[in-house]
């Protein structure tokens, strides 16, 4: 073969090899980074291969969401835990971030110089943080067993426990020979022992008991030092201003410290390295300020708001309702009826909501709604007493105002009979309207009701209700019931065989154009001005004056929604209605509405309550849920 031909073939071969190599480097997910960033297609994104709801820490199993993903790089399998699990079970501190794909954390590391940055991704209602590199660096052993993620850590030892006084409260320092998982949890309130000689009630609130659980073994000298008689120690702690270690219990690689904390103080835990320390500060202002972009359109904020001499710890979510893939819906704890209550954390998780806040008022005894609920254009329960409500559509537009539903029964003879309530637990004289959204049956709420059965727009029966709670009347699928209360003359206007139809309208009229409505009250702000008038919305004077934990919802000038929880002021009780209005004003709200408060106040995000322990949260009837579109 001529030399020129050989040279030409060699040149072509080298060119093909070079081109193929270059193309492979650009397409391969394992290629080294080049000077230009490479775009990774959707089908190269992490792929979910396993998930579960239990995490075993050194053989101790606790509830926590986890997942494993196949990475599109040579790092292979990634293990992730929900941010709630990292905080509550491992003691990892989440730092501020503006990047929804990254989360900086602090765990026995210098907060300003050696934080860890974890990849973040969302699946259904959870935000998962990739702990793979963190686990490798710290020597954790990870494996899965069905629904359980098992994590084993090198043995750790508690070397000392030190207590000291600071200007703001007590400090407890726990010295460790290496980083260890820890949890801080509140326990049910302990009753304060009453002296037999006491003749008056002591208004001093009882101490709160907290448990600090550490995956470490306490040295024997510490066990001897902190092993007091529990009743004596408890009495001593409650009768003094000191915060004491009540009891220290230790097993191999597990230590529990019991604290009795005076009312108004809460633990603020943190960790430090070199040497490794878990620091528990007991303070009246224990809330940690945060600003975390939790998901596209959901920002988690915690901050102190000052009004005069009072400082309020405020926990809130700022939601951009115009974000693609975000949906806001009224939610209810009841299924197939309007009767029922549950903690908002339970309802949110059952419905796969990413975030939620408790909603409007309800009757705790019979678990029935006392305010407006409208979802996807359908009234579930009507408003009462001209109380405040929020309405919105799927385009992210909101309306706040005092709301009435004006409903009328029109008979074939031309009679127009006003309806006073729709699917409501609120009782007043007149005609109450119940559809099968209420449930399969209706049971009279007061004595001597007359139940009118309507099917296919025709009255088919009249049934004496008798005593409250005794008679059960089926609600027809092709009609509804009318409960006649305290006005027997209405029965003669609705004889069997009469044809009827219903008309309804809202006041203000434009509320009717919104598919979603949630009632509360009282209305706090309109056009940036405080419009609070609790008596005009049927609230008692005592309710108006009360200071308590508050839930509130508002919209800013930019159109973002703020859902807010405020439980107390530093060294004091919760805000008044005027104060919660001013807090919402301070946060930048143009319009705002008070929601059911007190023990109902609960703000949920990604598997956790942000504002309180689930142990103390009451059961509620309804709320507002924020949903992320499903992702795989």
From TrEMBL:
Indicate the secretion signal residues: 1-23
What keyword terms does UniProt attach to this protein? Signal
Q: Does the keyword Metal-binding apply?
A: no
Q: Specify the Phosphodiester glycosidase domain's residue ranges.
A: 450-627
Under which name does UniProt file this protein? Phosphodiester glycosidase domain-containing protein
> Per the record, which residues fall in region Disordered?
187-207
In which domain of life is the source organism classified? Bacteria
Q: Which Pfam families match?
A: NAGPA
């Amino acid at each position: 073969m001529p030399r020129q031909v050989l040279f030409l073939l060699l040149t072509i071969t080298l060119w093909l090899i070079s081109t193929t190599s270059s193309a492979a480097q650009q397409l391969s997910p394992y290629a080294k980074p080049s000077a230009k960033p490479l775009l990774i297609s959707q089908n190269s994104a992490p792929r979910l291969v396993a998930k579960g709801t239990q995490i075993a820490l050194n053989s101790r199993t606790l509830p926590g969401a986890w997942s494993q993903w196949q990475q599109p790089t040579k790092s292979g399998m990634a293990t992730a835990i929900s941010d709630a699990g990292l905080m509550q079970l491992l003691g990892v501190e989440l730092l501020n971030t503006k990047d929804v794909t990254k989360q900086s954390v602090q765990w026995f590391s210098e907060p300003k110089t050696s934080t860890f940055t974890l990849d973040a991704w969302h699946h259904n209602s959870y935000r998962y943080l990739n702990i793979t590199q963190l686990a490798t660096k710290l020597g954790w052993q990870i494996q899965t067993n069905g629904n359980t993620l098992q994590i084993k850590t090198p043995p750790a030892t508690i070397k000392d426990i030190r207590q000291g006084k600071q200007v703001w409260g007590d400090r407890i320092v726990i010295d460790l020979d290496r980083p260890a998982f820890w949890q801080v949890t509140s326990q049910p309130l302990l009753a304060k022992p009453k002296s037999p000689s006491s003749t008056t009630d002591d208004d001093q609130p009882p101490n709160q008991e907290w448990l600090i659980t550490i995956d470490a073994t306490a040295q024997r000298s510490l066990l001897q030092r902190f092993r007091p008689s529990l009743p004596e120690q408890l009495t001593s702690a409650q009768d003094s201003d000191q915060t004491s270690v009540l009891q220290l219990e230790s097993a191999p690689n597990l230590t529990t410290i019991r604290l009795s904390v005076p009312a108004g103080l809460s633990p603020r835990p943190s960790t430090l390295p070199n040497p490794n320390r878990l620091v528990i500060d007991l303070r009246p202002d224990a809330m940690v300020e945060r600003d975390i972009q939790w998901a596209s359109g959901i920002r988690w904020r915690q901050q102190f708001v000052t009004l005069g001499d009072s400082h309020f710890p405020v926990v809130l979510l700022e939601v951009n309702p115009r974000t693609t893939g975000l949906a806001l819906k009224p939610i209810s704890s009841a299924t197939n009826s309007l009767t029922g209550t549950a903690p908002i954390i339970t309802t949110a998780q059952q419905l796969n909501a990413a975030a939620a806040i408790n909603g409007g008022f309800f009757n705790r005894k019979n678990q029935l709604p006392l305010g407006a609920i409208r979802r996807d254009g359908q009234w579930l329960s009507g408003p009462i007493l001209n109380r405040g409500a929020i309405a919105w559509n799927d385009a992210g537009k909101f309306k706040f105002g005092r709301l009435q539903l004006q409903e009328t029964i029109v008979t074939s003879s031309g009679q127009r009979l006003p309806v006073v309530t729709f699917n409501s637990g609120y009782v007043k004289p007149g005609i109450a309207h119940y559809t099968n959204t209420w449930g399969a049956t209706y049971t009279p709420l007061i004595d001597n009701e007359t139940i009118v059965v309507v099917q296919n727009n025709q009255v088919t029966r009249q049934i004496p209700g008798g005593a409250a709670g005794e008679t059960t009347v089926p609600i027809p699928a092709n009609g509804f019931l009318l409960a006649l209360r305290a006005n027997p003359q209405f029965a003669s206007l609705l004889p069997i065989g009469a044809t009827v139809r219903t008309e309804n309208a809202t006041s203000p009229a434009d509320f009717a154009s919104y598919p979603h409505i949630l009632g509360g009250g009282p209305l706090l702000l309109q056009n940036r001005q405080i419009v609070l008038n609790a008596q005009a919305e049927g609230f008692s004077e005592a309710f108006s004056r009360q200071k308590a934990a508050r839930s509130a919802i508002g919209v800013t000038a930019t159109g973002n929604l703020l859902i807010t929880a405020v439980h107390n002021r530093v060294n004091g009780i919760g805000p008044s209605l005027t104060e919660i209005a001013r807090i919402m004003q301070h946060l930048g709200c143009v319009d705002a509405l008070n929601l059911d408060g007190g023990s109902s106040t609960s703000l949920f995000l990604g598997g956790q309550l942000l504002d309180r322990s689930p142990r103390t949260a009451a059961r509620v009837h309804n709320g507002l849920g924020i949903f992320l579109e499903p992702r795989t």
